[in-house]
Write a structure and sequence with these properties.
alpha+beta; Enolase-like, domain 1; binds flavin-adenine dinucleotide; Uridine Diphospho-n-acetylenolpyruvylglucosamine Reductase, domain 3; 5-stranded antiparallel sheet
């Protein structure tokens, strides 16, 4: 079998880097191939390059590399990890802002109210530590996998996404951003800049549960995120979202209405009505990880257990 050798030369011009690859089959002439790699520090530069060169946006690359099936990427590439405005968690104008390039480890290290506990629980189970220090919240949303663990949590937090391009920025509720399995409303000239959570959604307790075939490095068979507020001994608001059981994670409005007004210490009396309601709202598929029937049943059980343990905590 012919082996391949390769030399590499980099030409740097500010944040633009041209990579020249010299490759050959042993005994043949070298061929020169080039690839442009952009790593801007300013959002305006990133958006300008996105508009003109249509590069592949890369953050932690934990989704990109496994899907390329190749040791190298063709380019042009836009690495967004040097954009400071895309990293970190802050508060402004009644919203909590998560920069799109905030890593799962950043989320775990942040001091956040109990309503975000579900997001932290999801972060702790995304891949392993190596994935959590590189993988980003924005990358998880843009990949738009039906099994993306952050999605049910962010839906239960009423999150909106901020998309920017050279012509301006726009905001969309997360449910409108995710249009199908691995499909989003992101235009080719747009960057996901931030995820915003309204302060009113920061109230209450929350929990996340994920079912997989093993404990670590698992793609979810089903996952549930739930948030409850309790006032005067009654559930005042509820947000429940189930993932990996429909093309896009769902909020369960009917279940939420059923829960509101109930006493957390009497929640078991609702199980017979609630669990079929959860199962009926799902549209799971059969795949290598589980059958649709198993998913439907397991998701209802997982959701009810998650709600039950929040009710015990709140009682
Ligand atoms: C071993 C392993 C285990 C994993 N386990 C889990 C798990 O348990 N749960 C889970 O949900 N995921 C898991 N993942 C998937 C992945 O780690 C996460 O989805 C992660 O959050 C992706 O972030 P990233 O920054 O690496 O994305 P990248 O790979 O850099 O990008 C993903 C996609 O989003 C686009 N993109 C990224 N950022 C932006 C932006 N700001 N604007 C526009 N487009 C953008 C990229 O072009 C690309 O198409 C796992 C992956 C691996 C390799």
């Amino acid at each position: 079998m012919a082996s391949r050798s390769c030399l590499c030369q980099l030409t740097l011009s500010g944040p633009r880097c041209t990579v020249y690859w010299y490759t050959n089959e042993i005994g043949n002439e070298f061929n020169r191939e080039t690839m442009t790699y952009l790593r801007p520090h300013l959002l305006e530069d990133a958006l300008q390059w996105l508009a003109t060169e249509r590069p592949l946006v890369m953050a932690g690359c934990t989704d990109i590399y496994p899907t390329t099936q190749s040791p190298s990427l063709a380019g042009p590439l836009l690495d967004i990890t040097a954009l400071e405005s895309l990293r970190g968690i802050s508060l402004a104008d009644g919203w909590r802002r998560f920069g799109a390039a905030t890593t799962w480890d950043d989320v775990l290290q942040a001091d956040l109210p109990p309503a975000f506990r579900m997001l932290k629980q999801a972060a702790r189970e995304i891949g392993a530590v190596q994935i959590q220090v590189s993988g980003t919240i924005g990358g998880n949303l843009c990949t738009a996998s039906p099994a993306a663990d952050s999605v049910p949590c962010l839906m239960a937090l009423d999150a909106e996404v901020e998309l920017a391009s050279v012509s301006g920025s726009r905001r969309l509720p997360l449910a409108k951003f995710l249009t199908g399995p691995r499909q989003t409303a992101l235009r080719p000239d747009e960057l996901l800049v931030a995820i915003h959570v309204p302060r009113h959604a920061e109230a209450g307790l929350s929990g996340f549960a994920k079912l997989g075939a093993r404990r670590y490095l698992v793609i979810s068979i089903a996952m549930v995120a739930a948030r409850l507020t309790v006032e005067d001994g009654r559930i005042a608001s509820a947000a429940v979202s189930v993932g990996a059981c429909a093309p896009v994670a769902l909020r369960h409005d009917r279940l939420e209405s059923l829960l509101v007004g109930s006493r957390p210490d009497r929640i078991e009396s609702l199980a017979a009505e609630a669990m079929p309601m959860i199962a009926a709202a799902l549209a799971p598929i059969d795949d290598v990880r589980a059958s649709a029937g198993y998913r439907r049943m397991a998701a209802a059980e997982l959701a009810w257990r998650t709600i039950g343990s929040l009710c015990v905590e709140a009682s």
